[in-house]
Amino acid sequence: MVLNSEIIVSAYDGVVNHEFNWLLLHYASESPDDLELYSYGSEGLEQLKDNIYDLEQIFVAFYRQEVDGNPGYILIAYIPPSALD
Fold it and tell me: Where does the sequence pass through the membrane (predicted)?
């Protein structure tokens, strides 16, 4: 497996510890095991959506949304129709 776990865990910790509010992963190759950090940010859902650069690729995102001062977490999987063929 070519999973750069230290970088991904660091970005995840950044989301949980309020340094960022999202991270975005993508597959670096055709292998389902080759997942890598693509981007992260702190400017909300619009910024996250703007970082989905290719609507033919699969992306996985972890997003934190504050609700009444309490963090809520959302795991998002973007799967394009072409991946279902």
Answer: none
Distance of alpha carbon 73 from alpha carbon 60, whole angstroms: 13
**Regarding the domain with residue range 5-84, which homologous superfamily does it belong to in the CATH classification?**
Severin (3.40.20.10)
| C-alpha–C-alpha distance, residues 63 and 82, integer Å | 25
First to last CA, the chain: 25
Could you read off the pLDDT of 50-72 as tens digits, one per residue?
999 888 899 999 999 988 988 89
- pTM (predicted TM-score): 0.86
For the chain, the domains span 5-84
